[in-house]
Amino acid sequence: MAAATVACFAVAMVNHSFFAAMLAWLALSYLCTSLLFALFSLHGFSVKRAFLPNAAVGQLAKMPLVIDCSHPWLRQPVVIYEKLGFAEGGQHTCVFAPGKSNTGHIFERDVMAIKRGEYKLDALYLRGGDPAGIFMRERRFSLPATMLVYPKADKVESEVPLFKYEAFTDNSDRLSGAQGGYQEFRSLRKYVPSDPMKLINWRSTAKYQKLMVREYERNSIISIALFVEGFKDYVSPNGENLEAIISRAAGIFEMCSDIYCSFTFIVGGFTPASMVLRPVEECRARLMYELAVMRPGNAKLPDLIEEVAPNLPQGTLVFCLSLNKDNPLLQKSMENLAARGMLFM
How sure is the predictor about 176, in pLDDT bands with cuts at 50, 70 and 90? Predict the structure, then answer.
């Protein structure tokens, strides 16, 4: 367009052509108008992040924005661009459709999460321009936030016989289990989705017109341990075997969280983490975070197991996810656990 404008002006000056002069002025007006449109395309815009919930691999991550546009005229379409490590291609681009100017507009963004981890978000870009598409203007907004993407939880085969060890209620206000012993009744409370149906107190439910469950002392009969290895020498070049056992570990935990139990976990890798003999619901946030951020490292699983093994009660159900099943040190640790009365799944 600029070259055509210069050419038309040159022709008009050489040939004294009125038509060429008109074309030159029209082209120049077109360029100036487009430039003004582009300069003011992002005028009056302000952007803030709305609440960012955590997501999981294979799910749509909700990333809403609060967009204010204060100028009095109709706004043009605006491109929203952001670098996102968990998205396909490491970035996400979408269009804020044209319309009337308004304030407090909630713009919903759904981004498919394909990679687990904890991501620090900051820069977000708005890109505007003119209707002809000749010029583009870009503004950067600093919007710091943290996004946590959990691993995908693989479905565990239904034949895993955890139900044999699950606690059950008798006619008294005590909780018993397949391994013997009782837990004393503590109080009634409102039902939450993670509670087993067998704990519902139907008499209290009828009285209060809402689901009520019995709550027992947290000295759970069932003890479950989950060990996840992340030793770097055993990780495949593309990391597929590590991602597989992380997804498997998440699936095992989801299965265990459906029953009343105490839980122990060890997550090896770059920064090993553990939690010993805690109610399963208290472990959820910590374990899922550790699985989300887990990286290969120097921590060896047999050493970590030996640290927590003395605290495990006899009869603990053990899930051990190893990257190298032929590791003699790990096999020795499993034999020691079996000698102490642990059960393996």
Answer: very low
Instruction: Judge whether 112 and 88 are in contact, CB under 8 Å.
Output: yes
Rg over alpha carbons for the chain, rounded to the nearest Å, is 31
Determine the Cα–Cα distance for residues 258 and 241; give it in Å rounded to an integer: 27
- Residues above pLDDT 90, as percent of the chain: 34
CATH architecture for residues 223-344? 3-Layer(aba) Sandwich (3.40)
The single-letter DSSP state of residue 103 is S
Cα–Cα dist 228/217, whole Å: 29
Burial classification of residue 205, based on how many CB atoms lie within 10 Å of its CB (0-12 exposed, 13-18 middle, 19 or more buried): middle
CA pair distance 68, 82, nearest whole angstrom? 18
Amino acid at position 175, single letter? L
Report the topology of domain 45-150.
Answer: Immunoglobulin-like (2.60.40)
